[in-house]
Structure to design on (123 residues):
C-alpha cells in the first residue's frame, strides 16, 4: 500500500542531558510520525558529523538551528520528489547523495538521521 510523504518539519528539543537535539515530524495520509534524534557523546574522527551551530552565546555552542533548517530543506526536496514512505532505502540514498560528503557535514547527520527515523516509523 502506497503512502506519499506530505510534509516534513524539524524543530529542536532537549535531550536527557539538557542539550538541544533535532526532532522531525513527518505527515502522510495516515497521520503524523515523530522522531527524536539521539545526540551522541562521542566525537571520533570517523563518525558522521552532528551539525551544531557553534554560537557560544546560544546553548554554549550546542544549538542545532542549522540542522533544523536543513531538515526543512531536505524535507521539501523529499516531498517534491513524491517519495513514498515505503521507499526507505531510496530516501536515505537520496539524502546522502544530496549531502555529498562522507561525514554528512553539509546537512548534518542529525538532520539526515531524524528524517530517516521518521520515514522508518511511517513506513
Amino acid at each position: 500500500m502506497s503512502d506519499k510523504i506530505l510534509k516534513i518539519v524539524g524543530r529542536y528539543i532537549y535531550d536527557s542531558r539538557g542539550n538541544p537535539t533535532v526532532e522531525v515530524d513527518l505527515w502522510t495520509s495516515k497521520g503524523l510520525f515523530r522522531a527524536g534524534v539521539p545526540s551522541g557523546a562521542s566525537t571520533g574522527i570517523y563518525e558522521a558529523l552532528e551539525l551544531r551551530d557553534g554560537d557560544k552565546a546560544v546553548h554554549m555552542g550546542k544549538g542545532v538551528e542549522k540542522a533544523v533548517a536543513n531538515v526543512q530543506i531536505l524535507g521539501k526536496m523529499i516531498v517534491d520528489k513524491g517519495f513514498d514512505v515505503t521507499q526507505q532505502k531510496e530516501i536515505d540514498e537520496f539524502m546522502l547523495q544530496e549531502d555529498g560528503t562522507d561525514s554528512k557535514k553539509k546537512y548534518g547527520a542529525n538532520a539526515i538521521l531524524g528524517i530517516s527515523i521518521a520515514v522508518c516509523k511511517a513506513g
Notes: The first strand starts at residue 7 and ends at 14. Helices lie at 65-81, 88-99, 109-122. The chain is about 35% helix and 20% strand. The domain at 7-40+48-122 is CATH 3.30.390.10 (Enolase-like; domain 1).
